[in-house]
Amino acid sequence: MKTKSTSSIAILAALSVFTAALSCGGKTKTNLAPSPLTNAQTDSDRILLQLENIEDGLTILLSEGADQRQSRKRGKVSPASILSDAKANSLLARMPSLVSKKGDKTSFAFRPRSAPAPRTATKVSHAFPPPPSSALAPSVSGKLEVTRFSPEGEVPLAPQLSVSFSQPMVAITSHDDSVKKVPVTISPQPAGKWRWIGTKTLLFDPDVRFPMATEYQVNVAKGVKSANGDVLAESTSFRFATPALQMKSQYPSTGVHGLTPIIFVAFDQRIEPSAVLARMALLSNGDSRKLRMATQEEVAGDKIVNALVVAAKKRDNGTRWLSVTPD
Q1: pTM beyond cutoff 0.90
Q2: Would you call 219 helix, strand, or coil by DSSP?
Q3: Using alpha carbons only, what angle is made at residue 38 by residues 35 and 41, rounded to the nearest 5 degrees?
Q4: Rounded to whole angstroms, how far apart are CA atoms 6 and 16?
């Protein structure tokens, strides 16, 4: 098929002649005479077909068409003129002067330097699991002894107790099995748990910390055996003590008061009020007066003591003070 730049879709005028024949299922072998040329057609647009070559159905022949150029409307440009240097300078003079600020000039934000590529380590080839060995366990030189312990002496706080030995004392096993029987005793024994750090150091962790105002005695009994079978030849004992109870403040301290004053006393650590009351006494001209706990109504009736109690409850949850009155 020949085309030219302005060729268009051509459909034979005789299509209507053989369409009816095709709809009946038959074919016609009669040659289709060329249709007369129209004004828009030329010899190159004429197509001659044999009906015997046409299959059943509707056939459409297409040819290339001409591009349709789209017309675009351009907006009108407003008339403009170039400003003179004098007018341009007058406009620039009306602008505020530029003032440099901190941060106007910044260096380029380079990304962090890449980490060096990892280097291949030395490869060591061994059989796994290793073959069975007949070698004996390494011998431990020296006798079994306690190498170090803490705390010792007067200490402000005692968060835990530790005792270390010169030889392994337990086998590497589960934690529950290793603390079923420990070679160290504490007197008095506070609430807490024992645990091993490795095989040579034994720790005791109290539930909070070692109670205050208490002296503790720690003992490692003679004859304790290590995991290697060596025996502790001599017992080891040491002591440590936490600070005793001290009074921080009291009211009243001076002045003249009534016959039944409300006495407020605050301490530096938690107390058992009934135990402290048993050791308190009010002296008057050499005579001892018995004291009792002040009631809430009595405390509320004294503005100063009531304010001290409210502040103490906020500060230490009400466990380091007590208020008493003469019985």
Answers
A1: no
A2: strand
A3: 95
A4: 26
